[in-house]
Amino acid sequence: MTTQARTGGAAPRLPAPDEPVLDVSGLSVRFRMRGGRRIAAVTDASFRLWPGECLALVGESGCGKSVLASALLGLLPANAQTAGRALVGGLDLLAADERTLARTVRGRRVGLVPQSPAAHLTPVRTVRSQLQETVRELTGARGSGLRAKAEAAAERAAFPADHLDRYPHQLSGGLAQRAATALALVGDAPLLLADEPTTGLDRDLVDRTVDELRRHADAGHALLMITHDLAAAERIADRVAVMYAGRIVELTDAPAFFGEPGPRHPYARGLLDALPERAFTPIPGMPPELGALPAGCAFAARCEHATAACKTVPALLDGTACHHPQEPTRA
């Protein structure tokens, strides 16, 4: 049975427009390693996600984005410790037990487009079989309507109908991604977590996929999209959160981030300047290991604006966690 279908129970109501779908406060994740070592994967993440809104979470690989998503769904390994809270419809996802998460959260309150879709698809069952099971469990459809609803779900994610009777090992990476997206959309969950939903897709399919995710948000749902694809983020996002070394260092409206005045955090600005259509200038240096973070600002070693003040960790104030927030200029 797929992750999306192991849920049961009635689908929750959509929140009121003035009520956040997701309210994250002080979310931290630590991994206990052998020898007492600890990995600070996520530190003090706080944000709210509202009905009809898409928040794009961006940053270099290994910064903690996917760990944050896994924490929200209770999919972390046994050596993980979480702190803080993450409320969805009054339920604290970080405090919920596995039974609650499996029966009332995954697929119903929170849908997931996984980063590694092949690992979430049952290898011995066809895509059609898995879609029909998910549709039956999440919508209650039976009989002749079940097949039609499963095919409609596939069409939403641009999954070709002539591939529905194939097994996961017969799919390309892009097709597996679209199958996982179709499964995630079935339950029309109030919150959808899309972890690199455009991996392995060509540009036309990227645009089609993010447009479908945007329609999901426009229907009153909330979307947290984790992505390296800044073009996709610009196309779909209302706000952008930039993560570096486990911390959110900038949180701002998407038009201001991608346009004027642009990012205020030097790292966020560097992400945009590294794009071929912009300055095409890479950020110097490498991000620190999450198990050996510096005492102060984790970006200081790569930042041309660093001073002695950066020996302390900056708080996230007015949407930027930086002792020297910038007002960048555009050519």
Automatic annotation (TrEMBL):
Pfam families associated with the record: ABC_tran (PF00005), oligo_HPY (PF08352)
Family named by the database record: Belongs to the ABC transporter superfamily.
Reaction catalysis annotation: Ni(2+)(out) + ATP + H2O = Ni(2+)(in) + ADP + phosphate + H(+)
Signal peptide (residue range): none
Record's keyword terms, sorted: ATP-binding, Cell membrane, Ion transport, Membrane, Nickel, Nickel transport, Nucleotide-binding, Translocase, Transport
Main localization, broad class: membrane
UniProt topology in membrane: Peripheral membrane protein
InterPro entries: AAA+_ATPase, ABC_Ni/Peptide_Import, ABC_transporter-like_ATP-bd, Oligopep_ABC_C, P-loop_NTPase
Protein's recorded name: Nickel import system ATP-binding protein NikD
Gene3D superfamilies: P-loop containing nucleotide triphosphate hydrolases
Alphabetized SMART domains for the sequence: AAA
Quaternary structure note: The complex is composed of two ATP-binding proteins (NikD and NikE), two transmembrane proteins (NikB and NikC) and a solute-binding protein (NikA).
Molecular-function GO terms, alphabetical: ATP binding
EC number: 7.2.2.11
Residue intervals of the ABC transporter domain: 24-270
Compartmental location: Cell membrane
PANTHER family hit by this protein: NICKEL ABC TRANSPORTER, ATP-BINDING PROTEIN (PTHR43297:SF13), OLIGOPEPTIDE TRANSPORT ATP-BINDING PROTEIN APPD (PTHR43297)
Matching CDD domains: ABC_NikE_OppD_transporters
